[in-house]
């Protein structure tokens, strides 16, 4: 559950990393820049207050003209009002860009996940994908619409403020700057420590999401084996790791916050000492000292906020890295540049010296599929037999390009399948798997999933296809559902039995009316009687369709014209069932392991 993700962990430099969200901002970047400008103006108003104060102290308050007090007070109140108004304006301005960037990134991730090959999804935990598409995207939204803007605006305000300090008194400003140097030391130390922490925490929350996802998904198994409390323990362990990392992060933030408050105050104390001395020398007026400290007080806010904003920025950076771990994944299974459309549609399927190995395979070990040569003639039904783990499922996933061969080629109607565009290929080759996935949708939409052409068809037309497929797959139970074929079946069809789900998945493959039908033991969850009926009906479909059928049961083998034995990564024998029984020891051995009661072999051998 806790395996590290095979991510590229693209740890780009901070600025280059952050800049990678820019393309998602599009025209909204204009609004973001306006937001920054507004934020700057509001800091400008805040910095204006000390200037008014100086005028007040050195002017009316020094006794020259008491009548000027009220206008000065009015100016200060007005500056405060404008500051508040511009803070409000900034918030309103950046509201929509943040949410729009958020949804663009989410869509890009979803789109990319849909396109990435099955091999990618084999490697990645769903919780990691979920947390990246969710939590990390939210982090980025907060950073774009708040962190980024305030970081830029506050940094500029600090520079402006320090410049103003210099106009009041270069000596005091210099003292202030020198005394502030330790802040940069603590800041950069924080940066390197916090970057690693935030990545670790975000990865950990991904593992927590995986733990939740797996236990919800496997709730029946966990319940039935009384493993609910174990699963809770594992979850609690994951969550407590996450909690620990958050505490460590919080502590790091608090420590930086401590220095960001205390160091400027220390600097001010040093300035006060120098200021008093300068005033006694007559180099500085009371008003100037007053204004200097008022400006420094205004700066305290932005300086303190830098710690929080820096943390937010670093979190957004690791969020961006985590998202680009996904977006940077190359999709190797793509349409060819110039797809071919072969003239004949006979449906012959030929494997030519096909190799396949998972990229996680040890180098030096033989490939899982180590040179498959197999010809399935047009209209022929070929059963595929092999022990568990021999690679049957992988082999059946190859003709539809769920995985690509690592060497060799597969020909459909004499054309390398990589020369078809994927949509064409996948309408020609339909699959049904042992593990039948159904979507939260009506039975009708689930079964007609592969029929893009029926999207604009009349109800009668689609009903004809639907009913025929349901009938062949012995899935007439559908008509007893509350709303018949329009009943929405639960998430992943959980409310249906395994056998019912398999029959719908089979109906889906049949409804697609493919040239080549690939069935990975889609009858395994059926009772013997239903299986026999489905097989009888399938025989009719299979008579006209080229088919490759993985058989875990002897009765499925009986559907086939010929049988291929997959053994040690190669097709060890091909022939009719009785031929193989007569000639291949290995076949007899594999078949007997499938045929628990031995009836099947004895009747055939004696026949
Ligand atoms: N992502 C993967 N990385 C490495 N090996 C894998 C991966 N997925 C499956 N395998 C291995 O590939 C082998 C073939 O699997 P499969 O085609 O499902 O066999 P079958 O359907 O014949 O039982 C199995 O031994 C399995 O452990
Ligand atoms: Mg299998």
TrEMBL record:
Recorded topology in the membrane: Multi-pass membrane protein
Main location: membrane
ABC transmembrane type-1 domain segment(s): 33-315
Database matches in SUPFAM superfamilies: ABC transporter transmembrane region (SSF90123), P-loop containing nucleoside triphosphate hydrolases (SSF52540)
Domain ABC transporter: 349-593
Residues annotated as transmembrane: 32-53, 68-89, 143-165, 171-190, 256-277, 289-312
Keywords, ordered alphabetically: ATP-binding, Cell membrane, Membrane, Nucleotide-binding, Transmembrane, Transmembrane helix, Transport
Pfam families attached to this UniProt entry: ABC_membrane, ABC_tran
Entry-linked CDD domains: ABC_6TM_Rv0194_D1_like
Any one GO cellular component localisation term in the record: plasma membrane
Keyword presence, Phosphoprotein: no
PANTHER family: ATP-BINDING CASSETTE SUB-FAMILY B MEMBER 10, MITOCHONDRIAL (PTHR43394:SF1), ATP-DEPENDENT PERMEASE MDL1, MITOCHONDRIAL (PTHR43394)
Protein name: Unannotated protein
């Amino acid at each position: 559950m806790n395996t590290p993700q095979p991510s590229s962990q693209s740890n780009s430099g901070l600025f280059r990393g952050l800049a990678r969200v820019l393309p998602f901002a599009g025209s909204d970047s204009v609004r973001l820049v306006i937001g920054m400008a507004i934020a700057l103006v509001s800091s400008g108003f805040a910095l204006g207050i000390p200037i008014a104060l100086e005028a007040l102290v050195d002017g009316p308050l020094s006794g020259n003209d008491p009548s000027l007090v009220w206008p000065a007070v009015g100016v200060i109140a007005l500056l405060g009002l404008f500051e508040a108004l511009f803070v409000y304006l900034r918030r309103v301005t950046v509201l929509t860009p943040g949410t729009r960037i958020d949804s663009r990134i989410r869509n890009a991730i979803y789109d990319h996940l849909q396109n990435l090959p099955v091999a990618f999804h084999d490697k990645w935990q769903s919780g990691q994908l979920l947390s990246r598409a969710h939590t990390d995207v939210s982090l980025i939204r907060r950073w774009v619409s708040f962190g980024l803007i305030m970081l830029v605006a506050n940094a500029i305000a600090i520079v402006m403020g320090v410049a103003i300090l210099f106009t009041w008194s270069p000596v005091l400003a210099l003292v202030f700057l020198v005394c502030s140097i330790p802040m940069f030391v603590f800041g950069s130390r924080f940066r390197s420590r916090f970057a690693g922490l935030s990545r670790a925490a975000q990865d950990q929350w991904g593992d927590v999401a995986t733990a939740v996802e797996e236990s919800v998904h496997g709730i029946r198994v966990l319940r039935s084996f009384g493993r609910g409390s174990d699963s809770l323990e594992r979850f609690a362990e994951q969550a407590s790791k996450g909690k620990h990392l958050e505490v460590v992060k919080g502590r790091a933030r608090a420590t930086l916050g401590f220095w960001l408050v205390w160091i400027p105050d220390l600097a001010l104390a040093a300035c006060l000492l120098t200021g008093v001395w300068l005033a006694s020398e007559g180099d500085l007026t009371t008003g100037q000292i007053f204004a200097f400290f008022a400006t420094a007080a205004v700066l305290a806010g932005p300086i303190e906020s830098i710690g929080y904003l820096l943390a937010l920025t670093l979190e957004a950076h690791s969020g961006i890295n985590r998202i680009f771990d996904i977006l940077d994944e190359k999709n190797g299974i793509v349409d060819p540049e110039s797809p071919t459309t072969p003239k004949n549609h006979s449906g012959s399927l030929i494997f030519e010296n096909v190799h396949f190995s998972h990229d996680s395979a040890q180098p030096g070990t033989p490939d899982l599929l180590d040179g498959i040569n197999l010809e399935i003639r047009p209209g022929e039904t070929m059963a595929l037999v092999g022990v568990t783990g021999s690679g049957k499922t992988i082999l059946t996933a190859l003709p539809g390009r769920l995985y690509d061969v690592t060497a060799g080629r597969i020909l459909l109607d004499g054309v390398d399948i990589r020369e078809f565009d994927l949509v064409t290929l996948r309408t020609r080759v339909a699959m049904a798997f042992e593990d039948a996935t159904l979507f939260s949708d009506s039975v009708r939409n689930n079964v007609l999933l592969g029929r893009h052409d029926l999207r604009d068809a009349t109800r009668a037309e689609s009903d004809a296809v639907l009913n025929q497929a349901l009938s062949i797959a012995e899935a007439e139970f559908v008509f007893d559902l509350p709303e018949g074929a329009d009943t929405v079946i639960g998430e992943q069809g959980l409310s249906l039995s395994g056998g019912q789900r398999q029959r719908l998945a089979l109906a889906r493959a049949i409804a697609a009316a493919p040239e080549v039908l690939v069935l990975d033991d889609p009858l395994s969850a059926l009772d013997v009687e239903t299986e026999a009926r489905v097989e009888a009906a399938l025989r009719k479909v299979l008579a006209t369709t080229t088919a490759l059928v993985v058989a875990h049961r002897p009765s499925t083998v009986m559907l086939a014209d010929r049988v291929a034995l997959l053994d040690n990564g190669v097709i060890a024998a091909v022939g009719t069932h009785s031929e193989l029984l007569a000639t291949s020891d290995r076949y007899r051995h594999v078949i007997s392991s499938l045929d628990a009661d031995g009836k099947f072999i004895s009747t055939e051998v004696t026949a």
